[in-house]
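Figure 6 in text form: structure in, sequence out.
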């Protein structure tokens, strides 16, 4: 039984790394689509995001099943709880890549970016993808020292975003309001992708050491979440899991000898995951603007 349990923990860790790798691949492809006005690449990103959503649902269920059936303690408990928390960051990383692709699709066949800012986004994309690759690696090797270096790399994306805003606010900007809106949204998407990659690394530090990394006091993006909010999120997610589990059992599912739920109607699990829905729009992770909506500038 313990061998099966250890294998399930290892499978969960590998699947989480796979989600991170897929989200990073999507952002790399979305960046190519953005810089080259490549519609087929943008469409591939949008199609691939459904796979991340599916993996998120499966990993949430795996995590809660391990909590309920195996009662893990110490490091094992940290791994399971951290994995459940990571689902949200990884889903949002995938969603942000999809938002970049949606802007490319909406503007096609025209290029999204004015020529003077192409270089900024090429570099933002390079750094963001590098952070995503590094986050995938630390999910697999649990190297706390390597994970700690990601926060420093994230500063490069923040600096590029500030430079872009400087360009947008000078009187010499001559590319119109619509282009300014696109540039602003895109810069935000890359910044938040990098932030989530850093958050993944910080959770790995907690997993490896049992201690949360030191957060910079001047960083408003990483303010501590109150315990009451963590409890609320856990209770809500656990309730959703139990409801999905009950529906699958009612639709013909059964429990195997090791407590794994098999069979039944997977569709009965009930639509969106609690970690971010299907990522197809509406949740752009901070901006409150759906990039698929009509251009606000007309």
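Output sequence:
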């Amino acid at each position: 039984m313990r061998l099966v349990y250890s294998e399930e923990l290892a499978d969960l860790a590998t699947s989480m790394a796979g989600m991170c790798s897929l989200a990073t691949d999507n952002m790399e492809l979305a960046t190519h689509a953005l810089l080259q006005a490549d519609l087929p690449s943008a469409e591939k990103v949008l199609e691939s995001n459904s796979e991340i959503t599916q993996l998120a649902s499966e990993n949430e269920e795996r995590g809660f099943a391990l909590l309920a059936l195996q009662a893990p303690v110490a490091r094992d408990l940290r791994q399971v709880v951290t994995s459940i928390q990571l689902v949200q960051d990884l889903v949002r990383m995938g969603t942000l890549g999809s938002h970049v692709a949606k802007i490319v699709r909406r503007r096609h066949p025209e290029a999204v970016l004015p020529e003077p800012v192409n270089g900024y986004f090429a570099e933002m994309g390079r750094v963001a993808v590098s952070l995503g690759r590094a986050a995938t690696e630390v999910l697999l090797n649990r190297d706390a020292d390597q994970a700690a270096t990601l926060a420093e790399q994230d500063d490069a994306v923040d600096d590029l975003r500030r430079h872009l805003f400087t360009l947008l606010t000078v009187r010499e900007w001559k590319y119109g309001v619509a282009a300014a809106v696109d540039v602003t949204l895109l810069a935000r998407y890359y910044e938040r992708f990098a932030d989530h990659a850093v958050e993944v690394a910080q959770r790995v530090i907690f997993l490896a050491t049992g201690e949360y990394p030191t957060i910079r006091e001047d960083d408003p993006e990483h303010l501590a979440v109150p315990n009451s909010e963590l409890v609320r999120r856990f209770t809500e997610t656990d309730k959703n899991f139990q409801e999905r589990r009950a529906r699958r059992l009612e639709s013909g599912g059964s429990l195997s000898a090791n407590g794994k739920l098999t069979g039944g109607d997977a569709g009965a699990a009930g639509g969106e995951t609690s970690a971010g829905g299907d990522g197809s729009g509406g949740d752009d992770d901070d901006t409150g603007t759906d990039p698929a909506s009509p251009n606000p500038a007309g």
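Caption detail: Helices lie at 2-36, 39-70, 74-107, 118-141, 144-148, 150-169, 176-209, 227-250.
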